[in-house]
Specification:
alpha/beta; Rossmann fold
């Protein structure tokens, strides 16, 4: 009798759900004998993170020994791998608020977004989609690596109506980015251009954050607020970014919008990934906190806050 080992990863790939695909360790060309499959649990959390110095410059020279990792308040049972990730395939959702609350710099923001997409997408490697939203989200362009199609969708956004920020993020995370499974990990990113003021969504703020966590999505936000004051919407944008390991930008002038996109582009190509086995793991479906810190206090780590454990 022949034996085959099938390793089952327990949906702990918090930033790379595609790593959780179940695949046989090998294949058999001789089918004349029965094959007995033995299932073994492999518990592994994969987390992407960014490291910067106190001036905000990206640190690209870290080693595993430079980090302290806590999962659910405990050090991991084992660190399986640590690596720099500069060329993972990107899956980007560009979400554009085209409600009546947008400002007169909207056209410039559109053009800056188009330039960003054109610069960052690598043909046959990266893909992006465009979603616009007023009272309801609208998929203006599905996943593609064609920058011209994406640019057309961005320019086609028409202003007017209410603002359903939460519904747009939830749809992008759950129905688009969360449904991408494959045999290679990808970087799932939402870039949200909005003032963060929601008045139409059926989804709550907490539901949006949960959708992003379950889908392994990192949210970057670019505020369209031009009041020179921190608004309730700005605080919402920061919450989404902080909880998912992203970053919130508040451009004061038009040139700052371009700078924000350039920073996001550099960050997506300047990240690390650490994989570890959690200590005392229980498949109970609850949310487990992740805390990654640099041993050097002058290095600052930004990563998502946690993940949902699978449930038996």
């Amino acid at each position: 009798m022949k034996f085959r080992l099938l390793a089952t990863t327990l949906v702990l790939c918090s930033l790379a759900p595609s790593l959780c695909a179940q695949t046989p360790a090998g294949s058999e060309s001789d089918t004349s004998e029965p094959v007995t499959t033995i299932r073994a649990s492999v518990q592994e959390v994969n987390v992407f993170f960014t490291a910067t110095d106190k001036r905000g410059k990206f640190r690209k020279d870290l080693q595993a020994s430079d980090l302290a990792v806590l999962d659910d308040g405990k050090p991991p049972a084992a660190v399986r791998s640590f690596r720099s990730e500069t060329d993972l395939p990107l899956r980007v959702g560009l979400l554009i608020d085209s409600s009546s609350s947008i400002t007169d710099r909207f056209t410039f923001e559109q053009e800056a977004a188009i330039r960003f997409i054109s610069d960052i997408l690598r043909p046959h490697v990266d893909q992006a989609f465009v979603m616009t939203f007023t009272s309801t989200p609208k998929l203006a362009q599905d996943f593609t690596d064609d920058a011209a199609l994406l640019a057309k969708a961005v320019r086609g956004a028409e202003a007017g109506g209410g603002t359903a920020v939460y519904d747009a993020i939830s749809m992008a995370a759950h129905k688009k980015l969360g449904n991408m499974w494959g045999d290679r990990p990808v970087r799932r990113v939402i870039i949200l251009i909005s003032d963060g003021e929601d008045n139409q969504s059926s989804a709550s703020r907490a539901q949006v954050i949960e959708a992003a966590r379950r889908s392994g999505v990192t949210v970057y936000t670019i505020s369209t607020n031009t009041s020179n004051a921190i608004t309730r919407g700005d605080k919402v944008l920061r919450k989404f970014a902080d909880e998912t390991g992203g970053r919130a930008f508040y451009p004061n002038k038009i040139s700052d919008v371009v700078s924000a996109f350039r920073t996001i582009e550099e960050e997506l190509r300047s990240q690390y990934a650490v994989a570890y086995k959690p200590a005392e793991f229980i498949a109970d479906g609850r949310y487990r906190r992740i805390d990654i810190q640099a041993r050097n206090k002058n290095v600052f780590i930004r990563a998502r806050k946690g993940y949902f454990a699978p449930k038996d």
